[in-house]
Design a protein that fits this description.
By secondary structure, the protein is of the alpha+beta class. It has one domain (about 1-120): GIY-YIG endonuclease (3-Layer(aba) Sandwich). The protein contains 4 helices and 7 strands. The chain has helices at about 20-25, 60-65, 70-75, 100-115; strands at about 1-5, 10-15, 35-45, 45-55, 85-95, 130-135, 150. The strands form 2 sheets. Strands 1, 2, 3, 4 and 5 form a 5-stranded antiparallel sheet that branches. β3 (about 35-45) and β4 (about 45-55) form a beta hairpin. The mean pLDDT is about 80.
């Protein structure tokens, strides 16, 4: 299986204080009406911290809906300082998969990467979900590919 995503330039949405007011002025025409994944994130200098990761068969329509979500917009305004940005990737190819399956796989991969990098994401119900943490103890080695702390969704019983 091979999934190809083309990441478009990030859109600055404003600071934590201005993001809610500036969403009304966002030009949705800048977002393609194509299938893909999107990330709402906080930007600190060159570093990005994902807040919410989603997928859509039509990015423009889905993001219009997200911009009207009071809970999501409040979550963007809450928390740490830094600019709020929107990153969008268009699905360019998914050999051997239907579009919906490719989007599900791409979204899941990005969510898992963000969680293992130590980012607490909002869950599907637009609230911060419970997470278990796994902490590496002992002497750090260069050969260990895992971060010091990994956050994971609890396993279902």
């Amino acid at each position: 299986m091979q999934i190809k995503l083309e990441w478009l330039p990030a859109h600055t949405l404003g600071t934590k204080r201005t993001v809610v007011g500036q969403i009304d002025n966002f030009d949705l025409e800048a977002i393609p009406s194509r299938a893909g994944v999107y990330v709402f994130a906080r930007k600190f200098g060159r570093a990005l911290e994902p807040i919410y990761i989603g997928k859509a068969l039509n990015l423009r329509t889905r993001l219009k809906s997200q911009f009207n979500s009071h809970k999501l917009m409040r979550s963007l305004a809450d928390g740490k300082s830094g600019d709020r940005v929107l990153m969008v990737a268009v699905l360019k190819g998914a050999r051997g998969l239907r579009t919906a399956d490719a989007l599900r796989t791409a979204e899941r991969a990005h969510i898992e990467h963000a969680l293992t990098s130590g980012n607490a994401l909002m869950n599907i119900q637009l609230t911060r979900g419970p997470l278990d943490s796994i902490e590496r103890i002992g002497k750090a080695t260069r050969n260990n590919p895992f971060p010091k702390v990994m956050l994971v969704k609890p396993t279902r019983k």
